[in-house]
Write the structure tokens for this entry.
Amino acid sequence: MIEDGISSKNSDKTRILIIGGGAQAKYAVDTFTLRGIEVCAVMNLYDSDELDWPATYSCPVLPVNPSLNNALMSNPTHAIACMPKGLEKVEWLTIAKKAGLKPISAIHPSAVIAQTANIGEAVIINANAVIQPFASIGNGVMIHAGCIVEHNAIVEDYATLAPGARMAGWSQVGRGATVFTGANLIPSVKVGNESIVAAGATVINDVPDRVLVAGVPAELKKQLD
Ligand SMILES: CC(C)(COP(=O)(O)OP(=O)(O)OC[C@H]1O[C@@H](n2cnc3c(N)ncnc32)[C@H](O)[C@@H]1OP(=O)(O)O)[C@@H](O)C(=O)NCCC(=O)NCCS
């Protein structure tokens, strides 16, 4: 069973509010559409030339409104926060919950998720990602296409795995950290909270909090303020 916050028998009554408007919102709308779950509105947080993209999926775009008053008029039952910054996700999910909306995850139908994996709330997992047995995915995590999270690996809350990132068994990505495209973690290494692993890096030693590492093997490049 996919741990997305709804049961299949209730999916026909589920109406989703997407809070965001950028790439993560696009993934979520696409996934819900593929899974036959109704997106009733997208609340757009960004100025964008692409403001009308949700019309492709037949759902309205609403201007940003922190009280959610306008969004609630479209009768959503669930909400997902779709934006790069973890703190913003926390804030928007708190607002949505206070408004009575349940958090929901957007898990692409082609993602493979082991029965024993633990999946948090309001995550986005894109096409062809593989989450192996006893792996743990925290709240608000973004896992892009083709990532592999091996057995017993941990992705903490609000972290991001960019396309094709691979975590070997028992490795760990800290809260709000980002592992960019095609980077690899060998078994049991830990990337610290809010740190960044540059594209193509291979992490063979633990990475402290709030630093950028890059290269093969990954080396410290800079502290992040
Ligand atoms: C990490 C990244 C964001 C750069 O961050 P940044 O803060 O702008 O880093 P800088 O450009 O200041 O680079 C700092 C150092 O790291 C090095 N570096 C940065 N990215 C690197 C990479 N991918 N591989 C090797 N070295 C890299 C730079 O050469 C520089 O090294 P130096 O200090 O020895 O000259 C970027 O390089 C990267 O990996 N982008 C991938 C983004 C991605 O995958 N997006 C997918 C979204 S779906």
Notes: Residues 3 and 119 are 6 Å apart (CA to CA). The mean pLDDT is 93. The helical segments are 23-34, 69-72, 86-98.
